[in-house]
Design brief:
This protein has helices at residues 3-70, 81-84, 86-103, 127-137, 171-174, 182-187, 212-266, 276-293, 307-314, 316-331, 358-372, 401-418; strands spanning 110-115, 144-149, 155-162, 203-210, 297-305, 338-344, 347-353, 376-378, 381-383, 386-394, 423-425. By secondary structure, it is an alpha+beta fold. The strands form three sheets. The protein has a five-stranded mixed sheet with strand order 6-7-5-10-11, sandwiched between helices. It has a four-stranded antiparallel sheet with strand order 1-4-3-2, with helices on both faces. The protein has a two-stranded antiparallel ribbon with strand order 8-9. α1 (3-70) packs across α3 (86-103), α1 (3-70) packs antiparallel against α7 and α9 (307-314) runs antiparallel to α10. The two termini are 56 Å apart. 25% of the residues are buried. The model has no long low-confidence stretch (mean pLDDT 86).
Length: 427
């Protein structure tokens, strides 16, 4: 896979991972919000129940007690918290409710009507509740809410709200003891629940709702969403990866075809050697380098001796095999700054850049003749070819490509005419 496509996939992977992490954190945050929202629903339900009980006591139970007193069925000083105390009744109902919740496997809901001046010590405000009552009476706090944790590590939503301020009618029971029903005073000491003033907030309702079950339900929802998100992002990423992979494969095929076409345009299809066009560009570049750096460039024009006989007397296939074998030997022979090309037919040309002296060129020519004209087995018979080489040197024998290759070619023909199987420098 190319660098561009790899970079795209890597960038997408990072984006998808960051997206997944962000969504996971979002869903986890939603879990806590969900738990709190569900707990607040319970709080609201509990408060509505509390108000309903309060309203029932005030509008049904107490009027009924007063009627019975008025009609003589009850004496005037009759007072029983079981029938006339809203707090007593509310607490009793909440106790029964928690027992029923426990039977069906639900956690209990903590409920308390807390007062710094309670009738019953069970309603005595603790340190935090006393401070909250003081703040509520000073208008510093209206409603209080926080997440608390017990010693076992369980989390709860704790909410505290004030009761309605004392009104004139409330002073009958919460004002001076002399004004209160006789039995109430006998039941509760003079220091309990009296001496309140109009406008005082004498109590707060505190409710503590367990969050663990709601958190558990929220985590299930969150985990489901996270899993769905992961699978969705993974599917999208794999889909993109697949399309990029297919595009990359097609690009590789195109590149291979382009390389193949480029190779065919610059190399001989039979021998695999560079063709005349490629050789010309390479040789011109070496001549330009030689001119800039004051280096010499040699052209070795090569012609195979006896090749036509193999082509005519044996077969063209045998001739092709000879050319391929010679080309393989050439490719194993050339070094850096050297290039051998098939010019045409059985003619080849070698360019040598930056050689040290004439002796080096002589050794190259001798090795070419010695190593590249060994016996070749083709069509079940042994054949061999000779090699005539004409050598021209830049800048001594010419300064352009056309001049040098022409001089080397002419010199090669002189060798073939006078002494086949050898080499000669232009004179």
């Amino acid at each position: 896979m190319n660098k561009k496509n790899f970079s795209i996939l890597l960038t997408l992977a990072i984006i998808f991972v960051l997206t997944f992490i962000s969504l996971s954190l979002l869903f986890q945050g939603y879990t806590e919000k969900y738990a709190i929202a569900e707990a607040e629903k319970l709080v609201q339900d509990s408060l509505l129940t509390h108000r309903a009980i309060h309203k029932y006591i005030n509008t049904v139970s107490r009027p009924e007690i007063y009627r019975l007193k008025k009609e003589g069925f009850l004496y005037d000083d009759y007072f029983s918290p079981k029938t006339m105390s809203f707090t007593y009744t509310a607490r009793g109902i909440k106790d029964f409710l928690n027992k029923e919740r426990k039977k069906v496997g639900l956690t209990e809901i903590y409920f308390k009507l807390a007062s710094s001046n309670p009738r019953n010590e069970i309603n005595r405000a603790d340190k935090q509740e006393s401070e909250l009552l003081k703040q509520m009476n000073n208008d510093e706090v209206e409603n209080y809410k926080e997440i608390i944790e017990d010693k076992k590590g369980n989390h709860f939503l704790y909410i505290a709200i004030p009761t309605n301020p004392i009104k004139k009618g409330c002073l009958k029971c919460h004002g001076e003891p002399l004004d209160a029903p006789k039995e109430m005073v006998e039941l509760y000491p003079e220091s309990s629940g009296y001496h309140e003033e109009i406008g005082d907030i004498r109590a707060l309702i505190s409710i503590r709702i367990p969050l663990e079950q709601h958190m558990k339900d929220g985590r299930k929802i969150s985990t489901t969403f996270i899993l769905i998100t992961f699978l969705a992002l993974l599917f999208i990423y794999l889909l993109i990866w697949y399309f990029i992979y297919r595009i990359n494969q097609q690009q590789l095929v195109i590149l291979d075809k382009n390389k193949e076409l480029e190779h065919l345009s610059t190399h001989d299809p039979l021998t695999g050697l560079p063709n005349r066009r490629y050789f010309e560009d390479y040789a011109k570049d070496k001549i330009a380098q030689g001119q800039r750096k004051n280096e010499k460039v040699a052209f070795l024009y090569i012609d195979l001796d006896g090749f036509k006989t193999i082509n005519d007397d044996v077969s063209h296939q045998a001739g092709d095999l000879v050319l391929k074998t010679i080309a393989e030997r050439f490719m194993g022979f050339v070094r850096q700054n050297e290039l051998i090309s098939r010019i045409g037919g059985d003619e080849f040309c070698m360019v040598v850049y930056g050689y040290n002296n004439i002796t080096e060129l002589e050794k190259i020519a001798e090795r070419l003749i010695a190593k590249c004209t060994k016996t070749i087995i083709t069509s079940g018979m042994e054949v061999s070819v000779g090699m005539s080489i004409g050598i021209a040197v830049y800048p001594d024998n010419g300064k352009t490509y056309n001049e040098l290759i022409s001089v080397a070619d002419d010199t090669m023909y002189k060798v073939k005419k006078n002494k086949k199987g050898s080499y000669e420098f232009f004179k």
